[in-house]
Every structure is written in C-alpha cells, then in structure tokens.
Specification:
Layout: E1 6-7, H1 8-17, E2 21-26, E3 29-33, E4 39-43, E5 49-50, H2 52-61, H3 66-73
Antiparallel strand pairs: 1-5, 2-3, 3-4
Length: 74
Amino acid sequence: MKLPLLSSKELCKFLENEEFQRIRQKGSHCFYRYIDGRTTVVPVHINKDIKRSLLSAVLNEIRMTREEFFKKYR
C-alpha cells in the first residue's frame, strides 16, 4: 500500500500525537525527539506536500513500520 501525501503540518501533528516533542526549529526545519532518544527532522514549507520518499525516511528514523503508521494515522 502506498504511503499518503501529507502536508508538513499533518506530519508534525502526527509526530506530536505519537508523543514526539518539538525541541527546536532552525529556519524551515522542525526537530523532534522522543523520550528514548529517537529523532527526526521535518521540513516545513507552506503549500508543499511531504514526498512519499521523505515520509518513508521519517518512518525509518522513528522506527515505525508502514503497517503501524496506517493503523495510527487513519
């Protein structure tokens, strides 16, 4: 199953719902960290979607499978 196209706002909201904390922002990039040390970066650009390849990379960084993502996202 294909990953959806998400806006950066939707991805940030998803990460925050998964208890990732926004630790800082530098320019147009938000940095998130989980309690156990996992981190990821989300580019925040208005009117641009996060590409599927970048979403896949973020999921790898936070150690979440596609199946887990689809269960939690929908």
